[in-house]
């Protein structure tokens, strides 16, 4: 009986992540894959190995003399990933994204619902629709730099106990924007099944017997952690593992599952992908979209908003699980008096 081979889409469905996240794992060497013509295939046992060991899988495999992915990086990006290619400027920015902004739309953010949106939008507008996978803080900065057309964020502001608007106002000076609500998600602690360390709050993170695994600076989770620690008067130097960083919810959950950390912070949705993990609720977050005022009335952006507000798209997003799509597409902030 032959071994079971999975497509990137099938692997993404098992991991409950977007398909492009699987491509990123393959490109980094974290997940093994092979090419059959122009198609990628992933062995079930390699996917199971990644679920068990996360980003350490590639290191463990290489130490055991295992072959690496036989996929050329440039060819991979050109033929498989839906990203713009081209020369970069002195700052390392892609010139195509700056020069051809009138002919393309770059949607920035890490949630897979944006992949679904980009795919739908690509089918009904003349402009090329691309995806950028920067986190919330970095996505807003990229928008200010003119590198992306649309940004998304889930940044909690501790002083006002609100999401996104305080950051958008300060990080996009001189830029009139419209902010649309997308959805709400639950954020919480990832702990081992049964919560053996009895972790319930951020106060527990300063305990000597507790070690965390953190997220990268600029991500919404990292901002949440930093703000909660600040509010609790806890120095980051008091938190064991604070400097240990991973780049995704899934990897954070897998790190806890392997016993390399006692706790991480992430979304409920991704905790469901890793057996052996319990989720301890912290708070519900707002995930919102930012569009420039000058773009808002343009046809492709109006089409994008039409898709976001459509029952078909909202049903597709809700079907992914752990998403509250109530008020999706509603204008929650505007510098131009636009109506919801």
From TrEMBL:
<dbReference type="InterPro" id="IPR041657">
    <property type="entry name" value="HTH_17"/>
</dbReference>
<dbReference type="InterPro" id="IPR009061">
    <property type="entry name" value="DNA-bd_dom_put_sf"/>
</dbReference>
<dbReference type="InterPro" id="IPR010093">
    <property type="entry name" value="SinI_DNA-bd"/>
</dbReference>
<dbReference type="Pfam" id="PF12727">
    <property type="entry name" value="PBP_like"/>
</dbReference>
<feature type="domain" description="Helix-turn-helix">
    <location>
        <begin position="5"/>
        <end position="51"/>
    </location>
</feature>
<dbReference type="GO" id="GO:0003677">
    <property type="term" value="F:DNA binding"/>
</dbReference>
<dbReference type="Pfam" id="PF12728">
    <property type="entry name" value="HTH_17"/>
</dbReference>
<feature type="domain" description="PBP">
    <location>
        <begin position="128"/>
        <end position="309"/>
    </location>
</feature>
<dbReference type="InterPro" id="IPR024370">
    <property type="entry name" value="PBP_domain"/>
</dbReference>
<protein>
    <submittedName>
        <fullName>Helix-turn-helix domain-containing protein</fullName>
    </submittedName>
</protein>
